[in-house]
Design a protein that fits this description.
4 helices; alpha+beta; four-stranded mixed β-sheet; two-stranded antiparallel ribbon; single chain
Length: 136
């Protein structure tokens, strides 16, 4: 079954947002010695550094029980690296709805590897009221 028109639009808009954020970061960080990659552009050495071995982080998680023994690769929309080392993962979301916890989860895992994770979103909420709340 193919994507619905809505799913196609959301995927397209999400990709546009990632491209915009990537270009913004490249404009502002490239002259400071940082490299900025979209998830699909990651060179193999950086991708391997970002692969997490969940059992070594959470000793109680048994991935073999579900037939998965390979390290996992988290939600990496954009990666900022310096001198070939990952420094920052940028999670791009069009909406905070049902997405904030996903970013927090990966943030917790990657923090243990010394990599910061941030969320960027153009979400302004409905009627100028953000999902973060409104002004009192």
């Amino acid at each position: 079954m193919g994507e619905s028109a809505r799913q196609q639009r959301v995927r397209y808009e999400g990709e546009r947002w990632e491209v915009y954020v990537t270009q913004f970061l490249r404009r502002h960080l490239s002259d400071k010695g940082y490299e900025v990659y979209r998830g699909g552009e990651l060179p193999r050495p950086l991708r391997q550094q970002l692969s997490l071995n969940v059992p070594s982080i959470w000793g109680t998680v048994d991935l073999k029980a579900i037939g998965d023994t390979a390290p996992i690769f988290g939600d990496v929309d954009i990666l900022v690296a310096k001198n070939g080392n990952p420094v920052l993962i940028v999670s791009c979301k069009l909406s905070l709805h049902n997405r904030l916890t996903e970013t927090l989860f990966w943030s917790m895992l990657y923090q243990q590897a010394g990599i910061r994770v941030v969320l960027v979103t153009p979400d302004k909420g409905q009627g100028n009221r953000s999902e973060w709340g409104g002004e009192s």
